[in-house]
Amino acid sequence: MSRVHHDRYPYRAIVDRPDYDWPGGRRLAIYLGVNYEVFDFGGGLGAKLAPSQTDPDVMNYAWRDYGNRVGAWRLFDLFDRLALRTTALLNADVLDACPGLAEACRDRGDEIAAHGGSNAVAQGSLAKPGEAQMIRDVTDRLASLGVRPTGWLGPWISESRHTPDLLAEAGYRYVLDWAHDDQPTRLATAHGPLLSVPYSQEINDIPAIIQRKQEAETFAAMIRAAVEQLLSECDRRPVVLGIALHPYIMGQAHRVPPLARALTELRAANDPRIWWTTAGDIAEHVEANGLAV
Questions:
Q1: How many C-beta atoms surround the C-beta of residue 263 within 10 A?
Q2: d(CA 153, CA 223)
């Protein structure tokens, strides 16, 4: 029976791969991927707190904008207290819409990774020439912060048939769109391999809180449980946990304390098996040592 296949990577069970370590002999790599996003007023895509009765949708637009005006800065305070460097997943439009926000990410030492132009448009809806131009524009705009981004997360985790090829052609090292594994894997492209670094759709506040209607205490418990399970496996294989956060969700005042408690506990445990890192450093370690399958 024939079936449609993406032809980007072959099947290989996680129990049937070479073993290796993260730097310093560590076995579980954890990174925080923080999404800094902007949206169109009166149109375009956007997560919704509740259905709007009229247009323009002031309620949901303003709720999302809160993340950039307040929530992000609240999370910066938390990350600073815990000495946590994060992967800043930046819409390029943040540079114009929120002066100083992207610069604050850069100045605190976060990795700057690309997250499209804005989250008002799903990347996979673009025709190939327009998508290629968008990738070039986003890359150039974020490079103005001082470091050219090497990682990409598509707005809405949306890809066209051509996205991995276009990213490899544009010089990207890794992509976060494919949440198919607990280890970095290689995607085949027309321009050579592109690394897929794990990015969780489970330990992710949008599916957990917006879609499943859970709350921050449950989300924090999910983080603890995921770390517990991965630590129980990591003697047999190296693994990655990406924790995906959005400032307009987890940056709300009532949600920061449960997140802070979970992260504080994990940091205080000082487990020698855990490598607190960034998606880019994971990609760099794998590439430098030829480790990904």
A1: 22
A2: 21
